[in-house]
Design goal:
CATH architecture: 3-Layer(aba) Sandwich
Number of domains: 1
Largest sheet: 3 strands, parallel
CATH topology: Rossmann fold
Structural class: alpha/beta
Radius of gyration: 13 Å
CATH superfamily: Response regulator
Number of helices: 5
CATH class: Alpha Beta
Order of helices and strands: HHEHEHEH
Amino acid sequence: MLALVLRRLGYQVLSADDGPRAIDLWDRSGVKIDLLMTDLGMSRGMNGLELAQRLREEKNDLKVIVFSGFITEAVERKVRATEDTIALQKPFDQGTLARVVSEFLAAGRT
């Protein structure tokens, strides 16, 4: 659903079911990726923050939005300590998603 909403808003979206598939897609896509949106909890042995860390080894200025239905204080501290990363509490509506993505992507541009 997230990918559908983002496409309707005019964004180009690549979608993967889990961290290893996201890394494979990243490696194969050949496109410039400006933003990673990832759930904190994912299957196949990798969480969203680990995925972000792995992808930032190749693109250190990658912006990341991590979302979860339960964001603990520890997660919030870890997110705040990481540049160009924000946490978004689920559930969120399409308007919130549109605003957060637009503002976050625009924040780094001059």
